[in-house]
Amino acid sequence: MTDSEHSEHMPQRPKDLQVKMTNVTTAIDDMFTRPIIGGSKFTAELASAEAAKESERGDGPEIQAWYT
Q: Which of 27, 29, 30, 47 is the most buried (most CB within 10 A)?
């Protein structure tokens, strides 16, 4: 890994975008925990579909656009 690959060398996200990203990431992480805890009641496939929906609702496209 070169020095230019460290996060401190990357541009920082705007604060409002950071808040959105934190909220979306937390919600998605929680969804992927549910199949682990709930077993067959909430499958990984269902968690993945719900995570995609949450990303759309939580400004996921705006977050992704910032990186491109």
A: 47
